[in-house]
Amino acid sequence: MLANWLSPILSDQSNNYFNDRFSCQGNFPDLKNAKIVVFFKEHKFSFAVRASLSKLYNHFECEIVDIGNLTATNASANYQVISELQDGYILPVLLGVDIDSFHEFCQAMSLEGKLNNCTFISNSVSLAGNSYNVENIGFQRHYIPKYQFQEILESNTPGLSLGALRSGQKILEPILRECNYLHFDLGAIRRSDCPKSVRSMPTGLHAEEACQIMRYAGEGLRLKLVTIDTDGLDEDSHTEGDLVSELIWYLHEGVEHRPKDHPSYSKEFKEYIIELNEVDHSLIFAQSINSGKWWLKVDNESNKYISCAYEEYQQTINNDIPDRLLKLL
Description:
Blueprint: E1 6-7, E2 20-21, E3 34-40, H1 43-53, E4 63-70, H2 75-87, E5 91-95, H3 99-111, E6 117-121, E7 133-139, H4 146-154, E8 160-161, H5 162-167, H6 169-177, E9 181-185, H7 207-219, E10 225-229, H8 238-256, E11 269-274, E12 283-288, E13 294-297, E14 305-308, H9 310-317, H10 323-328
Parallel strand pairs: 2-4, 3-4, 3-5, 5-10, 6-7, 6-9, 7-8, 9-10
Antiparallel strand pairs: 1-4, 11-12, 12-13, 13-14
Helix pairs in contact: 1-8, 2-3, 6-7, 7-8
């Protein structure tokens, strides 16, 4: 039972943002209608985040529940909680996950068949596993070894460096639409916006860009887990608490507005067939009539699609298939 792995929130940490919470005054909450749960590994920083969330207004019908703090310290025990929530079609949002736990969670999700695509938001990079892809977003080339940068370029999912993200905003949403597991290292955010994060640098994501990433991720129908690395933060990290509470708010908004528009689930789309000399079969693009989003069919004989941007469709019809799509075909 989930309550065995979690400790309740102290009474002075309660706030009105959540639809329900695991507090000292009551029993473990009923998660029957919950779509998102938030819980913490780093208990000290949880004070700052919960205090900041209490200042925000919950605009959404999608229920979000605070289930307290993890009592176990090892990643395998923590993943049991995550897996049970996922099996109940609930999106777990866990704060306080370091890089080692991130890799263990990837491996566990992969073994359970819950992970095809992971998105890693960080100054640095994480290389893919044998059975899943990793999209690295926000990395800065001067903070990673040259050989790792070369491996990223040669991989099927090169992701977006900080500079590429700024110049290619339209590609960000399609990448996040495919994500099963989003891991956000707060060190990816520039130091002026997240001053107490131990890995933040003078350059990095703006706070507004971080919120946009969370909104896009929340909209993704395949998202099964969100973790945030809060290394070095405590109850006095007020700016960081405000920032993380906003990240949670925008993720919540994304989940609230998830469109049921994927060609695998909906018939409300148009198809565009393109014949090109450099590809040995026709390319089929699909556009949702309702949301306007685009996909490319990976195999004409199957029902498998990859998310793409309108700009990538335009490049293709001009006989210039984007490298990102060409690697995934």
